[in-house]
């Protein structure tokens, strides 16, 4: 999960920040107060009290009495302590599998088996995706219903030896022309899934021990890195019926909040052309030229077409493999991020025009496909306050001296200040009054359907980033284990309070209703959206008792094949291009 970067310049008033950005004079839509953008406005504290400005971070004081000591909470935390080896084992197994989005066959199975062994009922194929599942435990009346999120996909090119602070890919693919690295958990999803599953099981154990009413649902989510899994499942109604949703993500600090994230559209562009030879290139519809031209054109958007909250990035996924072979198919994949769905669509529409222009200029044929679309996240202030209180109550992660030495070595290898892993709980502060953009997450779509709490722990040292080999190195290290177990305790403790304090759940729901009163969530995925699936191996289908293809999916999918012909170069020239003799 690519969580939002919280940019909160210290000591600046709201007016100062607008002036710094040039927004006051230029009319940039970077704050709900100026734009009236419903999705941005709902995520602002203006939605809670339209008569006031957003809370001043300097005057806000987080409540300290929300986390309640209870025997049920003690039972949940005690379960995590007693089963720490099992939790770490799950964490490390998923780290070793390092499977890509939509193909997490072993990882999803390991996660589901951990839950099933601890009394959860498993339903596979959530939202039509083979590696997505819902695990359920219910007790007593079954109310309230609390959801957990488990992710387990890895990232390409981020393979790294565990616990090693110098770049050393665990999987190295030798090719003298183009060496590459294997997949790695450079976003820490192995820990995300393991800690959330541990918290769900620990909560269920406490419910049994103290006879607490409620239902715990764990949602095994595929393809978060592609922003696919949860958005598809939310549209399909998989998350309906929840009273609250509790989420976390590995980070570089121990913190929670109720800020927003960027909405995002993901589109793959395919250019179709003709064959060609490097020695005789004339008359070729060159698809590699098309993706190069598109990339160049979109770079020109950055100066005058992107606000400070905007992000645009791409990867060329398919093109020529040898200098003298012109490919008939080249593909480039774009993310367009902005502070709201409407603004993200405007940016993606501009990117699409660049694709059309590139195709026109090169004489190639363009096909494009929507791969994903997610909203900006809707925070919940009361939920964040409850989580923060529990983080303080449980206490920060305790790192060994060797952990801190490892963290500093990682920072040194990245040229960052050598401060080690964060070993304190950050203060709880309101979101910055001006939204400056950042990451995106498909948890955002859940947050518009149910009150959602998000949290992060110091799973990597400051100065290193998500989606890096540095994070892969920590994700199965002792330091990573420490923060994974801490995250499990924060999640479980907060959930026990949700089960035993109906007043807080009611307050979260009331806040949610006020924030969403003037806006209705609608999936950014059209009704004819095509799931970007891979066919599962036979053993996976047999173990999970699924059939292939899922209902409503045509398999194999329609192929993307060039049928282009060479371009017209005009009539042939006469010899030496001389006029005929009279």
Automatic annotation (TrEMBL):
Gene Ontology cellular-component annotations: cytoplasm
Bilayer-crossing regions: none
Span of the signal peptide: none
Biased composition (Pro residues): 572-582
Positions of region (Disordered): 551-582
Any one GO molecular-function label of the UniProt entry: para-aminobenzoyl-glutamate hydrolase activity
Database matches in InterPro entries: Amidohydrolase, Bact_exopeptidase_dim_dom, Peptidase_M20, Peptidase_M20/M20A_hydrolases, TAT_signal
Record-linked Pfam families: Peptidase_M20
Single GO BP term: folic acid catabolic process
Full protein name: Aminobenzoyl-glutamate utilization protein B
């Amino acid at each position: 999960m690519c969580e939002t970067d919280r940019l909160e310049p210290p000591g600046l008033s709201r007016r100062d920040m607008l002036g710094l950005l040039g927004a006051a004079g230029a009319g940039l839509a970077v704050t709900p107060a100026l734009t009236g953008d419903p999705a941005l406005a709902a995520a602002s504290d203006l939605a809670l009290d339209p008569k006031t400005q957003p809370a001043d971070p300097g005057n806000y004081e987080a409540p300290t009495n929300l986390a309640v000591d209870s025997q049920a909470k003690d039972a949940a935390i005690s379960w995590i302590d007693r089963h720490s080896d099992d939790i770490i084992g799950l964490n490390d197994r998923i780290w070793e599998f390092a499977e890509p989005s939509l193909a997490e066959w072993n990882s999803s199975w390991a996660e589901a088996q951990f839950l099933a062994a601890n009394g959860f009922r498993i339903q596979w194929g959530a939202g039509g995706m083979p590696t997505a599942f819902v695990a359920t435990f219910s007790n007593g009346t079954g109310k309230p219903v609390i959801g957990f999120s488990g992710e387990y996909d890895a990232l390409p090119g981020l393979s790294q030896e565990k616990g090693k602070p110098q770049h050393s890919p665990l999987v190295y693919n030798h090719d003298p022309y183009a060496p590459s690295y294997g997949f790695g958990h450079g976003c820490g999803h192995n820990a995300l899934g393991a800690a959330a599953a541990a918290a769900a099981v620990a909560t269920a154990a406490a419910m049994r021990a103290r006879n607490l009413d409620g239902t715990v649902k764990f949602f095994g989510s595929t393809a978060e890195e592609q922003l696919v899994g949860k958005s598809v499942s939310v549209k399909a109604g998989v998350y309906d019926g929840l009273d609250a949703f509790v989420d976390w993500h590995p980070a570089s600090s121990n913190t929670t909040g109720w800020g927003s994230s960027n909405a995002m559209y993901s589109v793959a562009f395919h250019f179709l052309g003709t064959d060609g030879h490097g020695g005789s290139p004339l008359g070729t519809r060159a698809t590699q030229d098309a993706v190069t031209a598109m990339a160049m054109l979109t770079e020109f958007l950055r100066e005058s077409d992107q606000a400070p909250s905007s992000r645009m990035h791409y990867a060329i996924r398919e093109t020529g493999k040898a200098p003298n072979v012109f490919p008939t198919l080249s593909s480039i994949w774009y993310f367009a991020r902005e502070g709201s769905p409407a603004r993200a669509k405007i940016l993606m529409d501009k990117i699409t025009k660049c694709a059309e222009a590139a195709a026109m200029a090169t004489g190639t044929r363009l096909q494009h496909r929507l791969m994903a679309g997610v909203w900006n996240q809707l925070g919940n202030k009361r939920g964040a306050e409850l989580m923060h209180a529990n983080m303080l109550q449980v206490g920060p992660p305790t790192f060994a001296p060797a952990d801190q030495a490892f963290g500093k070595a990682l920072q040194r290898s990245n040229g960052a200040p050598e401060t080690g892993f964060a070993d304190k709980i950050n203060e709880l502060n309101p979101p910055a009054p001006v939204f400056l953009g950042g990451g995106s997450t498909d948890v955002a779509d859940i947050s518009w359907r149910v009150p959602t709490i998000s949290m992060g722990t110091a799973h990597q040292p400051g100065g290193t980033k998500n989606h890096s080999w540095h994070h892969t190195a920590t994700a199965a290290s002792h330091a990573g284990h420490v923060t994974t177990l801490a995250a499990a305790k924060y999640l479980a403790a907060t959930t026990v309070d949700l089960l035993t304090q109906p007043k807080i759940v009611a307050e979260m729901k009331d806040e949610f209703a006020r924030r969403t009163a003037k806006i209705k969530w609608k999936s950014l995925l059209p009704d004819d959206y095509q799931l970007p699936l891979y066919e599962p191996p036979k053993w996976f289908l047999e173990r999970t008792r699924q059939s292939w293809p899922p209902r409503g999916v045509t398999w194999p999918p329609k192929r993307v094949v060039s049928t282009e012909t060479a371009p017209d170069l005009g009539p042939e020239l006469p010899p030496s291009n001389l006029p005929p003799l009279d």
